[in-house]
């Protein structure tokens, strides 16, 4: 499991968030996280990835319609 842990900066990069967003959300208990003995935060990517809402693509619209 230790190899699955990523830091807040990596979470921000993977989600394309502003730096510090993952840390702020974790402190507000909005993201699952782990606090290490030294006080730093770590995240398990699989736990975060499972929070992503997957929306299926809409059916493509025809370029033109025959009336």
How do the helices and strands line up, and which of them pair or pack?
Blueprint: E1 5-6, H1 8-15, H2 21-27, E2 34-35, E3 41-44, H3 45-49
Antiparallel strand pairs: 1-3, 2-3
What does this structure look like?
By secondary structure, the protein is of the alpha+beta class. The chain has one domain (2-49). The protein is built from three helices and three strands. The protein has helices spanning 8-15, 21-27, 45-49, and strands at residues 5-6, 34-35, 41-44. Strands 1-3-2 form a three-stranded antiparallel sheet. A hairpin with a 5-residue loop joins strand 2 (34-35) and strand 3 (41-44). The longest helix has 8 residues, at 8-15. It is elongated, with a radius of gyration of 18 Å. The mean pLDDT is 85.
Task: Give a quick set of tags describing it.
67 residues; alpha+beta; 3-stranded antiparallel beta sheet; 3 helices
Summarize the structure.
This protein has helices spanning about 10-15, 20-25, 45-50, and strands at about 5, 35, 40-45. With about 70 residues, it is of the alpha+beta class. It has one domain (about 1-50).
